[in-house]
Amino acid sequence: MRNNFSGKVWKLGDDIDTDIIIPTQFLALESVEAMKKYAFHPLRPELAGFIEPGDIIVAGKNFGCGSSREQAPEILAALNVSCVIAKSYARIFYRNAFNNGLLLLENNALYDCCEEGDQLAVNLENSQVLLGEKKFEVASIAEDLLQMVEAGGLVPFMKKLNGK
Amino acid sequence: MGMTIGEKILAKASGKDVVKPGDIITAKVDLCMSNDGTTHLNIDIFEKQLKAEKVFDPEKVVFVIDHNVPSESAKTAEVHKKMRLFSQKHSIPFYEGAGVCHQIMIEDYVVPGQLIIAADSHTCSYGGLGAFGTGVGCTDFTSVMHTGEIWLMVPETLKFVMKGHFNHGVYARDLILKIIGDIGANGATYKIMEFGGSAVKNLTIDDRVVLCNMAVEAGAKSGLIEADEATVAYVTSKGRRKMQLFTSDEDASYEQIYQYNLAEVEPMVAIPHCVDDVVPVTEIGEVKIDQGFIGSCNNGRIEELRVAAQILKGNKVAPYVKLLISPASKEVYLQALEEGLMDVFIESGAMVLNANCSVCWGSCQGVIGEDETLISTGTRNFKGRAGHPNSSVYLASAATVAASAITGKITDPRGVIG
Fold first, then answer.
1. Residue A25: CATH number of its domain
2. Number of domains composing chain A
3. Most buried residue among A108, B12, B16, B378 by CB atoms closer than 10 A?
4. CB-CB: which of A17, A88, A156 is closest to B189?
5. Minimal Cα–Cα distance from A56 to chain B, Å?
6. Over residues A11-29, mean pLDDT
7. Strands A83-86 vs A104-106: parallel, antiparallel or unpaired
8. Residue A96 is part of which domain span?
């Protein structure tokens, strides 16, 4: 896993549910690639078109609540979002995100300090996120989970471990 | 230190005498279930990526087509075909059009003491029968379907102590909406919501499932109620006798204990667009509706249909308003037919749909348009959940939905119910 990276902030609110991340009517599309342009469609239909590889989503509490649909973290990974930093996450989404190679970080204070368009620098070795001079602590993430994220999720990681 | 029901089930499933919150365990799963919301993804991972050949136990893997039934598009039909072929190939139980997956599981599979993993967030419903159910995504599910095991963290437990009886026109649905309104949509994130107290004996099995089903809307990993004589009677009436009843120890540790007097609960409504934005129906003001829906894994069982029929009997659905009713399962459908409830619904002008997730899933039946308003007994009122991104969903009991369908605006059922 790249331990240091920076990215531009897209800021969303509290309780961003998985129906917002990817609405039901787009789930039957044939691929995650086809779905990804509808990310956050009910809330901000134009947003997916603006998200560039490496960007960071900053959100409030309970990100990913609702349905267990795994396409939600999958499309964020497909948009090459480098990570999500939220105040907190719903538990099914949390597992699904790591299983699909999407890094999630948690911090309570960052949300109120940053604006959309800000640049954040993430340093996983120090478990810190930097906004200019300001530092925000995030919990450390186990090395094998980071390796799983880097491999692209649980299945590619298992395949790599099995040498397949 | 004693253990809660949830801790005891997880200890049993992981072959340990004792577990405590924060422990990470590897547990053996008693059953797993997946539906057409995501099963095509499981099958792809299973066959193409893992190149797996066998499910861990064909009697313990259940596939249910319930989300888009009957299929509304060629793409959905492909998903269903994939599930049919996989089920045949692996000789696993398969249901199509027989009802909402969780109701089928409750009617045909669940017994107290089990650990059940399913690729659907409302798997926590099985706590109504004293089983530990929790939802996962399709990657975790595929691993469970292949190995029969899963790693889990043992969660903290919140206890909801209930006493008293509901007043006329107030139901378990109103209580769970009130609780979620009180603790918030993340008030129980990662935790078990255990419902107990002297009122449990007054709650029917349907009521108990209603409470546990919506635990995930407060973020919970599971909802649980101690199995009692009523649970055993229900399960044995379905021909299942092998079960393990767990009770929480008196010195079990709870992160927090909440008290609820059922007599103080009023009819409640969750307003758009979050399940925890809950107000008593008396405070809702004038809200006109375009559509009502009675059904779903939360509130489409026979008791809810009886209440709806009681209100609709001799009345008509308001002009320019639609009322859609989908029984939660084939069993519920047949029972409603036998009791004459369907006659009442059809006479009132309601549309009776086949047993499925229907309007609650928001893609195959009763999708609403721009600026339209739905009042629903479904599980969620997220923005765009029922159709157009600029539409509104209110959540309420079957009684409130039925009363509102007659008047064309959100209505307190206590003024209407006989």
1. 3.20.19.10
2. 1
3. B378
4. A88
5. 23
6. 94
7. parallel
8. 4-161
**Contact (CB<8Å) B362/A27:** no
**What's this model's pTM, rounded to 2 decimal places?**
0.93
**φ/ψ of residue B203, rounded to 5:** -95, 135
Q: Which positions of chain B have pLDDT values less than 70?
A: 418
Residue A1, pLDDT > 60, answer no
Q: Which residue of B has its CA nearest to A29?
A: B75
Tell me which residue in A25, A61, A73 faces B186 most closely, judged by beta carbons: A61
Tens digits of residue pLDDT in A32-41 = 999 999 999 9
Give the burial string for B154-170 (b: 16+ CB within 10 Å, else e): bbbbbbbbbeeebeebb
**Which residues from B are below 8 Å from A65, CB to CB?**
185-186, 219
In this structure, the dihedral spanned by the alpha carbons of residues B118, B120, B126 and B131, taken in order and rounded to 10 degrees, is 40
Whether B382 and A20 lie within 8 Å, measured CB to CB: yes
pLDDT in tens, A36-80: 999 999 999 999 999 999 999 999 999 999 999 999 999 999 999
- pLDDT (tens digit per residue) in B111-139: 999 999 999 999 999 999 999 999 999 99
Q: Which domains does chain B have, with CATH numbers?
A: 5-262 (3.30.499.10), 270-415 (3.30.499.10)
Can you tell me the distance from the alpha carbon of B193 to that of B34, in angstroms, rounded to the nearest whole number? Answer: 23
Return the amino acid letter for B221: K
